[in-house]
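Assemble and predict.
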Amino acid sequence: MLVPERLVTAGVRERTEDRGMNPAHPLLERWNGAIREGNCSWSQFVIEHADKLISMSGITRPPFLPDSFAHLQKVKRIIRADLGELDALLLRLENGYLIKLNATQHPFRQNFSCAHEIAHTFLLDTNATAPVAKKRTSRSLHLHQLNEEVLCNLGAREILMPKSVFSDYAQRSGFSLQSVPSLAHTFQASITATARRLVEVSPEPLIAIFWTFRKTPTSSIRKLRVAWSMQSSSARRDRRYFVPEFASIGSGSSVAYAYASDHYTSKPENLNLGNLDGRYHVESKGFGAGSKRTVISFVFLKAPKH
Ligand SMILES: [Zn+2]
């Protein structure tokens, strides 16, 4: 049967990280007031919606599989198909949404994509027919600068790994890179999403660095280089660290050893990456194979460096 469908989002998350908020976003108007009053932040808004959804689902223990409660957010159908390079699609139906997931991807990644698309629905007014273009004003400029994709990834982590539950499990398994594979298995989330979540909730000042072996736009020398990094909120309280993309690390480092082997490494390391400059305790582990191989490092900012 043909259904009236309208494409809402088509996501390749990595490529849309820097995309700004759609200027025609229906929420611009709805939330301008609250944000102007300073009593609402967009991240809070998304997290509160995610928590409400989990609470409505009645699920209290992992895994929090979005398929089982997406209907509570008016997702009428979830279809899995080969979407090529896309992670997922969100389409508007007459009375709700349709989510298409990329069946060629790992099921844990599909879980995250599904949660991400659900988070998009928090930001949409299901009663709106078509978004109305708004003039860009100085007040809405602040909202334009916010990144919808980043917000939806935040929402997806909260849906798949609700903070209170995840923190309990992380407390038991330890805030270490070694805990990531088992937590990923328990919450049925990808290694990357789980590592990010662990850093987000870590009470320890911690920076996660994701490394890939590659060239830079200006250098053809392939090295183990920073793809991206993030720091725990506990680390942000002390200092803002800047770890530049493409910064490289030597072949004699424990990070390089983790890349070349299947071993988990945990040792003091001299780092000179932007203003992350000094000797820190670093855990590293390689994941994936071939061109997709990455190393994740956890840099402990206050751990003893002996
Ligand atoms: Zn998206």
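The two ends are 66 Å apart (CA to CA).
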